[in-house]
Amino acid sequence: MEYVLNLSDREFDMLRLVFQFASAVLVFIGLLIAAWNLAIASKRFKKDKTKESSDYARELRSEFRSLQINLRDIDPKELLHIDNEKLPDVMFYLNSYERLAIDLKNGYLIEDYMRASMGFSVIYTWKKTEHLIYELRSKGGNARYFEHFEKLYQRWETQP
């Protein structure tokens, strides 16, 4: 059985307009769904990044607690003449802050969260070890030692 529509030009134009309108409505609905999914994914990404920042700060603090050295017990001038036993622990501190600064620079962590969580520690550690870092730079012949840590300190020191 064969069906044939006998439509006038006007009826055909009306039918075409109805289908075009329906097509436009479906495209609009598809765009709304895509925007909704994008918003949900963005929120989920930010939540994951916040959790990652929190875990990172917690891990860093526990690593520092496990060290045999406490920077509060050392006079900054002693750091320039620190014995070989303590130097690896101090370097671990400095490398950890350099890694933190690089991860923040690359956007792997949320800077506002990390500043609220570790801001005092970053500023305190830089001030305590600044002379040692400059000494390491001059003796090692590399002016870029801990440059990201220094830039992080400068940024956080000037921002409230």
Description:
This protein is mainly α and 160 residues long. It has a domain at 48-158. The chain is 78% helix and 0% strand. The chain is built from five helices and no strands. α3 (87-105) packs across α4, α3 (87-105) crosses α5 (147-158) and α4 packs across α5. The longest helix is centred in the first third of the chain and has 58 residues, at 9-66. The protein is rod-shaped and about 100 Å long.
Question: Helices, strands, pairings?
Answer:
Blueprint: H1 9-66, H2 76-80, H3 87-105, H4 111-140, H5 147-158
Helix pairs in contact: 1-4, 3-4, 3-5, 4-5
Could you give a short description of this structure?
With 160 residues, the chain is mainly alpha-helical.
Give a count of the beta strands, DSSP E runs of length 2 or more: 0
**Unreliable stretches covering 5 or more consecutive residues:** none
Measured as a percent range, the helix fraction is over 70%
Question: Average pLDDT, to the nearest integer?
Answer: 81
Distance between the termini: 81 Å
Strand content: under 5%
* Helix-strand string: HHHHH
Give me the Rg, rounded: 30 Å
* Largest sheet: number of strands, sense, barrel closure: none
The helix count comes to: 5
Shape: rod-shaped
Q: How would you classify the helix and strand content by structural class?
A: mainly alpha
